[in-house]
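Shipment paperwork, digital attachment
Item: protein structure file
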Amino acid sequence: MQKSLSKLHSKTYDSVADEYERRVEKLKPVTKYCLNQLMKGMKPGSKILDIGCAVGYTIEIFRKAGMIADGIDISPEMIKYAKRRNPDSKLTVGDFMDTEFPNNYYDGVLAFAFIHLFPKDVVTQCIDKIVNILKPSGAFFISTTNSSSSSEGFEQKVGFKDGAKRFRKHWTQDELENLIKSHNLEIIWHEDIKDEFGKIWMDYIVKKR
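Attachment content:
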């Protein structure tokens, strides 16, 4: 199933890359606020991996703050925009789960609007991998929209072009916090934030214990 999801998401996010680019300026204020929470306590030169970096405006924010930011995204069209914005950054087209990263390497990992693209069992494996590539003192940002009930399946991407289909897991707050705790991770920051399009996001920063 993972391979078929990768193909689907590559096609879907290629089709909406132009729309993502047009939304950058509108989303920057809330994005900067969230990324600043992750970077608190980090020194210039800290290494950060952005999983699902899209058009790269998050990478740009990290760079301007003095961080070394790598990015990976399943969509070649998204990475084209990301490379224009960040020509000197290491940006990879690929599936995070199929791409090798060194263990205990990154000071921070950003997984913004990422975990809801996969079934719960795949997300569990994904978090295991993130924990492995983080330094012992590393932290990562995890977020998804707040749902009143848990469900998962294929659906259209709301607010974008007709036919932009993807897999979507809807997480409740209790379910997400239980997932975090099951990996022996410590929640160091949490805030529910409404973005410029009216979506409520559950934003967490967690650390290795």
